[in-house]
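G.,

No rush on this.
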Amino acid sequence: MRSITRHESDPARGHDAARSAVLGRLAVVALSVWAAVDVLRMILAVGRYEDRIVVVTHGNPDVGPAWWAYEIADVLLPAGVAVPVVADRVWLLATVVAAVTFLGWWQRTRRANWGGLAALLVAVALHLLARLYDALTSPGAAAWGTGWDTRLVAYPLWVAGTVAVVVTASLCVRLIRRVAEDRHASADARGGTAPE
């Protein structure tokens, strides 16, 4: 004889838990893609900077793999399409999708764990600082060609932003998985089943 699970006895609650589980899975995928896109965007930004140096000095790049990644991306894109513009747009799309899915999951689970949200805010703040730096050091801007427009300033800022994104994505994924495991454990303890 089959026992009635908690979700069968309370269909609304089971349906909500199933939605949370699906949203959690989507958030894990979106956060993972966001981290990967951010790493690629940082590599392309460093490669672009290395390309600026190679064009001026006619020497070899100091960060060869990043320069090669930038050159390959530049060749693969149609003429007139700038690699940084494409990288920034893909990064923005990945960021919005990751934020929306994570915040949707976070709101739906009604968990008051602020660690993932705080890490998300720090990552966004570092990227806003990096965007401000990029704007201030672009050709014709106030800091272009000054001591602020150097690898010693740019690379650590870009790397810090990327590290913040990867750490944030990892913390958020860990939180989602921990909540899912807690739900399974509590459902098992009650004799019911939790949605996958």
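When you get to it, here's the other one too:
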Amino acid sequence: MYLKENLSYSGLSIDQKKVFNIDVEQLKLQIIDLENARLEKEVLLEREGPNGIGDWFIGFKVLDDSTFVLLGDNRFYKVDLGGNLKQKIGFDHLFYVQDELAKRFGHTGFKIHQNKIYNVITTFGKPEFNLLIYDFKEDVYELKEIPGSENLISSTVITYLGKSSFTYVTGFSIVDFSDDFILHNRSYPQMAVYRTNSNSIQLTNSISNFYEDVPKVDKIKEVHSVKESEDFKRDLEKGMSFLIPIWDEENQKIFRWGYKLSSINVEMDNPEYDNYLFVMDKDLNIVEEFLIPEVRIKPYRIFIVDNQIYLYHNFEDELGFIRVGLDFLKTGP
């Protein structure tokens, strides 16, 4: 089972019984039985030919129990569970003919609804993000500012190695949220919400007892070695980071998992992490928040199934899940 990316290219089936995971190295769709955490089936995807989908991806989303979408090279590929390409939607031409899109590219967060693509785009080497809304039927687009994204300077580092440079910046995820969607960045406590009816983006700022606002800085951190870059990233983990949140339609709540390096045990080889759960209402106000003292690992992905949180973990190259029941919404964890 492909766990190298920690289920970064995965999604939960609509019936909540399976996880669809992409092995980006061998280009396979893996269908995982969630209850038993075992591989049920593998489907080889084609790189070339009529059903070819290339070999470079930065995004994955489940559309329904028969179709998923991959984002790669400014193209969207709708693929069925048999590995057959059903539709290819390209918008790469925009980045060649539109001056305001020069040196920009589609990033990880996206949503497809009706004839529109919503995709977070960024600028090469800079913490600059916008929401691109592309009508692929009419071949027209608009750009929207993502409020709060300018503050990601504080979590960005440029590493200079000889004549080359590498920029580390955390990207946005797009999370379905009732009729709207959330623009989420794991490095930043605030979340932005795109409102479909008004075609607008609103920034929220939930108040918590467990974290504070990220301090604002005016200049991107610059370093000249890989060690300095890794030290910077490790320092970031001393503050709160967040997994991709989940909107739970049944409970009408948003569940957001947070984590930070523990001050008790910060061994470089095997550090421990403090883990937290934040429960939010439809207005993105925190209504309950908990420290989860039993969980001391670095988390990567959560799913919500049968009123339980399934927290993914790699147990010595074996897939596993830590389960947290949601009955604590009334009684405490």
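The helical segments are 94-97, 226-236, 328-331. Residues 63 and 195 are 20 Å apart (CA to CA).

Enjoy the weekend,
O.
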